[in-house]
Backbone:
């Protein structure tokens, strides 16, 4: 599910001896701030993903980088939690049971009280960008997720 573009294969030094593989570099970022107009100290991310292992991994990563996370296992829960929590950002898997991510996005966008929430689609579907943008997503992250790029974009998506 996760990749890091910074990972590199074994590298030979100029004298022909192999060096140890370099470890992936995760960006150092400033602590995030919640979207203006909220009373939260940390941004709240609604993570809508039906695979529990993926949710656990993303939640752990985001919390380690200063985000609070609420989780939805399907699109219906995502819509309900968006209304209940008013998150700063929704990371929305597209292929989920009950209600898929496209329909959940449309339902969130149909409610004017949720207008300021950014929604970023998470998908392995090739060519999905036009469809997710038409549904109301602000952006899309391809799976497998490049952790470094995700963390670099998070401040932009939460409005800081």
Residues:
């Amino acid at each position: 599910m996760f990749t890091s573009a910074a990972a590199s294969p074994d590298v030979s030094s100029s004298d022909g001896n192999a060096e140890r593989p370099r470890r992936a570099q995760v960006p150092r970022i400033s602590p995030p701030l919640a979207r203006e107009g909220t009373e939260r100290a940390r941004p709240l991310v609604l993570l809508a993903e039906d695979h529990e292992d993926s949710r656990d991994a993303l939640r752990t990563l985001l919390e380690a980088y200063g985000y609070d996370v609420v989780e939805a296992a399907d699109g219906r829960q995502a819509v309900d939690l968006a209304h209940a929590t008013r998150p700063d950002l929704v990371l929305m898997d597209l292929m989920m049971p009950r209600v898929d991510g496209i329909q959940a996005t449309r339902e969130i966008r149909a409610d004017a009280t949720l207008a300021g929430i950014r929604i970023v689609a998470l998908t392995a579907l090739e060519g999905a960008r036009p469809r997710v943008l038409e549904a109301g997503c602000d952006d899309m992250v391809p799976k497998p997720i490049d952790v470094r790029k995700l963390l670099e974009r998070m401040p932009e998506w939460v409005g800081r």
In short: Residues 45-157 form a domain with the Rossmann fold fold (CATH 3.40.50.2300).
